[in-house]
Amino acid sequence: MDVKNEKNKEIGYVDSVDLDEVGAFFHKIVLKKTGLSRLKRVLNRQSGNPLSFTQVSTEENGYLKATTTEGLLLQIKKANGFFDMSLLGITLPFISIQTVNTAEIKQQIKNIIQYYHYPELLRVKIKKDIQGWYHTKKDKLFMPAEVNEWGIKTIYNLDHYLGFNNQTHCAYFTNNDENNANLIKINQNEEIENILLKKGRLYQRTNSLLILDSDTATQLADDEYVNVDVPALLITTPFDQPKNASFTFQAEKFRYPVIYLEHGNAGTLRCIMPAGSQPESLFIARKFKFLCLFVKNNLFVVNHSFVPTDDNSSQRLQLVFEGLEMPVQGLSKHYIAIPRDPLVTDDSAVIDVIITIHQLVKYYIEQASAETRDGHVMIPLPRLVA
Predict the structure, then answer these.
(1) Is a pLDDT exceeding 60 seen at residue 75?
(2) What pLDDT score does 202 carry?
(3) Could you report the per-residue pLDDT of 187-214, keeping only the tens digit for each?
């Protein structure tokens, strides 16, 4: 409902009434004056006066989404007979009546959010097609602008929020720039620290999950490892990954309590284990359809690994151990030596090996039986020595 041109810009609702009472309150579909006592209005928690709105729309869940004349974007729902309001964002009217000084804008936002429920991050509309974000817990205003050494300002719109890192106090965003999504890092001083062109498609964010889709990448540069404060990371490969393609990442550069691996495509997904790791020092368990791998303080969960597939994709999901000494007795049947970069070492006694998820599943069933499915039996990885 657009009430922009209406004189009365208040939202209200009528409490539920018995069918017998309807005639007393309405003439056809028009509310009589005698029914006004049953009409309740949404009140501003700050002033106690009715809020005025420029636009109101309904959502599928029955909530209202409304923009106030002051520029606040609200979600309104009815709970226990009262209206419950959540602040979703700050729009142009609010910014236009405030000073351009970011410190004062932050203070104005802090003053207003205390009267509403609010998420971790609020959208802040700067101009028609440009938006920043305000971190409510950290009191940080992330603006979509970078000034170079010559004082030239470039706008990189912060379209999608990936998350915040409490250790580094940095935030990550992606933007859409002429059909090329960029990955943007903003530091603790609220300044753009790094812009990785055409790397924004690597990551997506849900409420409790960061998703890394390798897209066309074969490996990640150091600054492409994004660590934000969410419970888990999902690493996957594109459905159209060709047979000769591969994606490799280093496990120790991600700092998530849980890392899910999902790979069912034609190429290869490789996970390099932390430096110095010996296979026998790591443990695996089965949780129904999933293989669980315990690596230092992290839990890796390989999705649907105990479900046979026609394409044998689990043979192309591999764990890599680098810099191991070649056993005098030779490698066990579970491991495969792979070519080592000659620039790293010329020592022929040092090798890199892989073990596939397919091999780990087979080994676990052999050692713990096919009936062990509830995760209570943990076993070490196979011995490296034959």
Answers:
(1) yes
(2) 96
(3) 998 888 999 999 999 999 998 999 999 9
Q: Cα–Cα distance between 50 and 58 in angstroms, integer?
A: 19
Q: What are the distances in angstroms from CA 83 to CA 16, 43, 86, 108, 161?
A: 15, 8, 10, 24, 29
Question: What pTM was computed for the model?
Answer: 0.81
Nearest to 219 by CA among 181, 253, 185: 253
Query: Is beta strand 64-68 parallel, antiparallel or unpaired with respect to 53-58?
Result: antiparallel
Tokens of 50: 């009715």
User: What CA–CA distance (Å, rounded) separates 146 from 235?
Assistant: 30
Which pLDDT does position 27 carry in this prediction? Answer: 57
Token pair 């869940």 in the structure block, residue? 61
3-state secondary structure the chain: CCCCCCCCCCCEEECCCCHHHHHHHEECCEECHHHHHHEEECECCCCCCECCEEEEEECCCCCEEEEECCCEEEEEEEECCEEEEEEEEECHHHHHCCCCCHHHHHHHHHHHHCCCECCCEEEEEEECCEEEEEECCCCEEECCEEECCCCCEEECCCCEEEEEECCCCEEEEEEEECCEEEEEEECCCCCEEEEECCCHHHEEECCCEEEEECCCCCECCHHHCCCCCCCEEEEECCCCCCCCCEEEEEHHHCCCCEEEEECCCCCEEEEECCCCCCHHHCEEEEECCEEEEEECCEEEEECCCCCCCCCCHHHHEEEEEEEEECCCCCECCCCEEECCCCCCCCCCCEEEEEEEHHHHHHHHHHHHCCCCCECCCCEECCCCEC
Residues 6+ apart with CB under 8 A from 322: 272, 273, 275, 340, 352
Residue 378 banded pLDDT, cuts 50, 70, 90: very high
Return the structure tokens found at 252.
Answer: 């120790």
Q: How many CA atoms lie within 13 A of 5 on its CB side?
A: 0
Q: Which of 102-106, 109-113, 222-226, 336-340 has the highest mean pLDDT?
A: 222-226
Identify the residue whose tokens are 């009365």: 8
Size (the chain), residues: 386
Separation CA 194–CA 361 (nearest Å): 41
pLDDT band at 347 (very low <50, low <70, confident <90, very high): low
The whole-angstrom separation of Cα 327 and Cα 3 is: 78
